[in-house]
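Task 17 of the worksheet. Students: predict the tertiary structure of the chain below and write it out as structure tokens. Keep your answer in the requested format; marks are given for formatting as well as content.
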Amino acid sequence: MFTFFLMQIKTIRLHDPAVRSVLEVLFCYPGLHALMLHYPANWLWRLGFCLLARVISNLNRFITGIEIHPGAQVHPSCFIDHGMGIVIGETAEIGENVRIYHGVTLGGTGKDKGKRHPTVAANVLIGAGATVLGPIHVGENSRIGAGAVVMHDVAPGTTMVGVPAVPVQRGRRIHRCELSELRSRVENLEKLLEAKHEN
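Model answer:
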């Protein structure tokens, strides 16, 4: 547990510029508290004490606003920032240095038994309000944009945005000037189509 605290303090200080002290991290970070309660619940779950594990996870949700099923596998270097409204399903797997923001759901898409929640590889960022559903794999170094809905595998290093989520070009930003140029081209094409329909 001591190693977990050290790893969490290091992770939080690395990813949150608002941190002022170790005491602030220990007392004021619900993501830390949620993981602190998740690990004993997960241990009990794996030992077969499922009801007790669920009671702890329910207490966790009540205290932190973060719902992590006790069966979920979460790496100790995972950083949950702001936390409120996060849901992590039973068969979810979260790798090293994953950052998860408030309102994220790592959920299932049906009532099937077995693997039904996402596997998130190392160094992934999942933006606020994003929903990642099903037994999919999110590749390492990927980014899921705020509010995105992801239901298919994500290649490593890919940024996914939108509903449904689509990849944006790797290593290339979309600039405002490109967007205005595209908007102008679309408007011109619409005018051409209207003219053809009138004839």
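Marker's comment: Residues 60 and 94 are 18 Å apart (CA to CA). The chain has one domain: 2-171.
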